[in-house]
Amino acid sequence: MIKKFTAYAAAFAVITGVFTGCKGKDGTDTQENSSAVTTSVQSTLQPDPLDPKKTTSAVTTVTSSVTTAAETAPNETQPDPMINNAFSIDESGAVVMEIPVEEQNDDILIAAAQKLYNSACETQWKFLYEPPYDLDYTETVENEFGWEFYRIKTGGIKTFADVENDYHRVFSDRYPNTLSETYREENGSVYAFTGGRGSDLYYSDSMITAIESRKADEIFFTVESLYSGSDFGDEEYTKTDTFSAVIVGDVWYVGVFELPF
């Protein structure tokens, strides 16, 4: 399974250019092509004891041609789908398809799904464990377990529905959410819990590897997450889940999703 994950990762890096690894700010991946290099190596020979008159030249010049690895490969990189205007990412993290889905090939759809999955991870963590709002730590309420929630003082957040609206900028409302565990509406304000939890220390990376099925308004993908081990002494392993993109017009929102860390 690990070899399979590695093979997928290598193939995906070739397809998308910038969706794994450094993820450059401008999405480009430049490479200079080195030319052939000719070097001259001088090798001084020891005198031949059988040639006391030194009729053999003491110095021999050896010329070799060294071709760099960059020259043997074409000076081309696979085009980045975003640069080619296949899709873009809006300010919230949702994917905007610039070309109709039915005109896209599977590689482009998988690349777009990877971007949306990355947004899902960031958004889910932020809303559930590190609320993206300014908080007033002097005003609190408690739930039935005695957990303290702090009042949100960010403008425009007056009701629990306001928080959900922000969340649904990336996540579809087709599936239920667990925001009520982190946010409470009381006394005409909304309060957020900031206790959170730690992330999985063994989590390494997640990769969209295939399209499972398609409907008119939703595409289901296979996502494989790599872990270096566990608290129980497990060796490196992968976990396979389903991830989906809900399509509304030309925008993709997160559908089926499980936070991998």
Q: Find the count of extended strands (DSSP E, 2+ residues).
A: 12
What are the segments in which pLDDT stays under 50 over at least 5 consecutive residues?
A: 1-77
- Radius of gyration over C-alpha positions, nearest whole angstrom: 28 Å
SS field, number of helical segments: 4
Taking all residues together, what is the mean pLDDT?
Answer: 77
Give the SSE string.
Answer: HEEHEEHEEHEEEEEE
Largest sheet: 6 strands, antiparallel
Spatial sequence of strands, sheet with the most strands: 3-4-12-11-10-9
Based on Cα principal axes, name the global outline.
globular
Q: Structural class, from helix and strand content? A: alpha+beta
How far the N terminus sits from the C terminus, by CA atoms, comes to: 19 Å
Q: Describe it for me?
A:
With 261 residues, the chain is of the alpha+beta class. The protein has four helices and twelve strands, in the order αββαββαββαββββββ. The strands form three sheets. The protein has a six-stranded antiparallel beta sheet with strand order 3-4-12-11-10-9, with helices on both faces. Strands 5-6-8-7 form a four-stranded antiparallel beta sheet, with no helix packed on it. Strand 7 and strand 8 (189-192) form a beta hairpin. The longest helix has 24 residues, at 106-129.
